[in-house]
Amino acid sequence: MLLQFFTVLMMLCLALLPAPARAQQPAHGSAAVPRPVISEQERADVQKFVTEHHPELATLLTQLQKSRPAEYERAIRELVTQTQAILRLKERSPARYESQLTAWKVDSQIRILMARWSRKNDAETEARVRSLIAERQLLRREQVTAEKQRLSEQLQKLNDQLQDLDQPEPQRVQTEWEQLSRRAATAAKLAEKQKSGRTAASQIPAGKVKQQKSEAATKP
Question: What's the pTM value of the predicted model, to 2 decimals?
Fold first, then answer.
């Protein structure tokens, strides 16, 4: 019975993958795409991630590794892809990271509960799944709203650029020329200052330099 549960769980995990992840699976009859080898570090990272954020799934994976190695490998491959995508957001976009992490945990809980429900159609499990579905839909709405805001801000920046580029050509050329000339003048002044400093230092007698270093070393 336990082995049957693990098998059903893994089948459901693959069947319930988001559409983009399913699209990566080769079609029946097509040439198989070589799969990259999963490193031991990637396996360790997945185990750490799952143990921290979904202990129940970590326990199931451990049992599955012993009883059904093939299904375990399939699950690990999917988890490597999912967890790496989430972790990449941790540095780039902390807000999106938290949202994606929460969504991943909800998805994982739904898959496990659906595996249980497939063996026993009990009302309690169904109620929990329905509650999680509502939570997932709310999270999805928040994500779509945030993405809409991000795209709106990006569109505004593009409109601002177009507005600048729609100015009369003489004005645009003059504005950019002023920016370039200021940068060139600043760079020239800095180079001249550095050159003067090197010239002054080279003119100080060696004995004087040694004396200055000695005095500096003896100062409290």
Answer: 0.61
